[in-house]
Design a protein that fits this description.
The chain contains 16 helices and twelve strands. By secondary structure, the chain is α/β, with parallel strands linked by helices.
Length: 441
């Protein structure tokens, strides 16, 4: 049966199209900087938000109308697989992502949960044989069930630690079975509410041990996917150990994991940490740690993880600038960890939302490539730091000076001249590129 019978395959029709079920800017075959948009952007669909999210919130029950919700249990899980691959084909996306409980319901025991998972994984594998859509990454949900009330890999309960490890072991096996290109760890409850009852060092040490055991097992079974950590500062815990890229990078260095992991950076998590999306991407990039992206945005008036589909062109431009400067995302991609608004409850709204997000990043890609080609931002930065290209500045950079020499130099200065940062001029230039990139084509 068709779950989206009112939707045909989504095609590129150009910016003048009035068809709401068509791409206006995302043309998968168009080349930008020598590669196709599809190759660069590597879009993925989040299984949890697209096929399991019911749009409930703390103040109301779910509003989503989904054809597969007339089924229950494993029948619903199987229907979701059918709907998912119809959706992937019509949207023409190269990737998807999931947690274990997204695709198969938990049983009363771990054994039963694994059996449910095996059934659905076999079904997904069969569908993948005839589909272009591959698995960008998978992970396990070690945060929703009450057993994880105190955490998983950082739990105070050794039984919970063992249970979480068993789930990750199964997740790694599933990843290998389905050819996942990455494996993600999101520490949904790897943190604490108060230090009054927390042994932070033991928890963090155990989490480091957990990650090492995970990689050891991946090596044992020949699962060569890139491991990714997804930082988030808060929600559901008050203090999470992977607060942002900087704290996550420090953790990885401390536990000798920096050569094993990279980061899966989510836009809305960045803003919750008090950073911009591009800040987190940039920090990861300059440290060689940018692996993949969960593409969404937060609401400027709300202080929680709203997971909106990305439509802010300024943000997507600066994000794509960092991704292009990174040389792309390697085995990673742009996964839409985003959900439609509660008012957008029809099956067709799922397509409208993904089209908006894909078009937004396509715009960002083309503008960012022009900024790079024209040396707009690089030129500004190079000029701003020109004092470190020669003289005393070059000696500082090359490590050929000390406080004695610097004092001698400073005593000889009669005047220090600073130059304007020209921030408004730079932002105006970005606006100009945003507004002219498509009108000049």
């Amino acid at each position: 049966m068709s779950y989206f019978s009112n939707v045909n395959k989504i095609n590129y029709e150009g910016s003048k199209s009035s068809n709401p079920l068509a791409f206006k800017f995302y043309n998968p075959e168009e080349k930008v900087g020598g590669k196709t948009m599809e190759e660069i952007l590597r879009f993925g669909v989040a299984y949890w938000h697209t096929f399991t999210e019911d749009l409930s919130d703390p103040f109301g029950t779910g509003t989503a109308i989904r054809p597969w919700d007339k089924y229950h249990g494993m029948d619903r899980a199987k229907a979701r697989v059918e709907a998912a691959f119809e959706f992937f084909e019509k949207l023409n996306v190269p990737y998807f992502c999931f947690h274990d409980v997204d695709i198969a319901p938990e049983g009363d025991t771990l054994k039963e949960s694994n059996e449910n998972l095996d059934t659905i994984v076999a079904m997904i594998k069969d569908y993948m044989k005839d589909s272009k859509t591959k698995l960008l990454w998978n992970t396990v949900n070690n945060f929703s069930h009450p057993r994880f009330v105190h955490g998983a890999g950082s739990s105070n309960n050794a039984d919970v630690f063992a249970y979480a490890a068993a789930k990750v072991k199964k997740g790694l096996e599933v990843g290998k079975e389905l050819g996942a290109e990455n494996y993600v760890f999101w520490g949904g409850r790897e943190g604490y509410e108060t230090l009054l009852n927390t042994d932070m060092k033991l928890e963090m040490d155990n989490l480091g041990r957990f990650f090492h055991m995970a990689k050891d097992y991946a090596n044992e079974i020949g699962f060569n996917a890139q491991f990714l950590i997804e930082p988030k500062p808060k929600e559901p815990t008050s203090h999470q150990y992977d607060f942002d890229v900087a704290s996550g990078f420090a953790f990885l260095q401390n536990y000798d994991l920096q050569g094993v992991f990279k980061f899966n950076i989510e836009a809305n998590h960045a803003t919750l940490a008090g950073h911009t999306f591009e800040h987190e991407l940039h920090y990861a990039r300059i440290n060689g740690m940018l692996g993949s992206v969960d593409a969404n945005q937060g609401h400027p008036l709300l202080g929680w993880d709203t997971d909106e589909f990305p439509t802010d062109l300024y943000s997507t431009t600066l994000a794509m600038y960092e991704i292009l400067k990174n040389g792309g995302l390697g085995s990673g991609g742009l996964n839409f960890d985003a959900k439609v608004r509660r008012e957008s409850f029809t099956p067709e709204d799922l397509f409208h939302a993904h089209i908006a997000g894909m078009d937004s990043f396509a715009v960002g890609l083309k503008v960012a490539q022009r900024l790079i080609d024209d040396n707009v931002l690089d030129g500004v930065v190079e000029d701003r730091y020109k004092s470190f290209k020669n003289g005393i500045g070059l000696e500082i950079v090359q490590g050929n000076t000390d406080f004695h020499k610097l004092e001698e130099y400073a005593l000889g200065l009669t005047e220090i001249k600073n130059e304007s940062g020209k921030l408004e001029r730079i932002k105006a230039a970005i606006n100009q590129y945003l507004l002219t990139t498509f009108t000049e084509e």
